[in-house]
Amino acid sequence: MTTDPYAMPDMDELLDQVRKQTEEVQRIQRSVEAMEVKAHSRQNEVTVVLRGDGRFTSIDIDPRALRQYDARNISEIVLEAVNNGLQKLAEASSAKFAPVIESAKSIEA
Length: 109
Fold this sequence. Notes:
One of its GO terms (molecular function) is DNA binding. Residues 11-38 form a coiled coil. Helices cover 62% and strands 16% of the residues. By secondary structure, it is α+β, with helices and mostly antiparallel strands. The protein has a domain at 34-106: Nucleoid-associated protein YbaB-like domain (Ybab, Chain: A, 2-Layer Sandwich), CATH 3.30.1310. It has a 3-stranded antiparallel β-sheet with strand order 1-2-3. Helix 1 (11-34) runs antiparallel to helix 3 (71-108). The longest helix is centred in the C-terminal third of the chain and has 38 residues, at 71-108. The radius of gyration is 22 Å and the shape is rod-shaped.
């Protein structure tokens, strides 16, 4: 069966595909916003928890670290844990959206 390269695509079918993809993206977005990610500093002195919407819900500092380090070092350790959390969130979000991105690429091809 040959297809006519000049034939008009079925608009209802195209609109249905767009609607399904939009619904899938919205579903994934809700699931990303609801997830929680936990991350730590390199030596686990600081633990952070953040939600998929980017809000941090907790930052815990080991009391031993407060006795061992000065304020400047503590702030660097907190930043390390926060950046680790943001990286984990970005990776988890990308993984959740990967199937939709791959699906969209296959439709374009």
